[in-house]
Amino acid sequence: MKILVTGANGQLGTELKKILEATMPSVAIYTDVDELDLTNAKAVESFVVNNDISHIVNCAAYTAVDRAEEEKSLCAQINIDAVKNLALAADANGAKVIHISTDYVFDGTNHRPYRESDKVNPISQYGTTKRKGETVLLALSPEAIIIRTAWLYSAHGNNFVKTMLRLAEKNDEIKVVCDQIGTPTYARDLAAAIVTVLRSHQWIPGIYHFTDEGAASWYDFAKAIFRLAGKQVKVKPILTEDYPTPASRPAYSILDRSLIKATYGVTIPHWEEALADCMAELGAAK
Question: What is the predicted pLDDT for the residue at 285?
Answer without folding.
Answer: 56
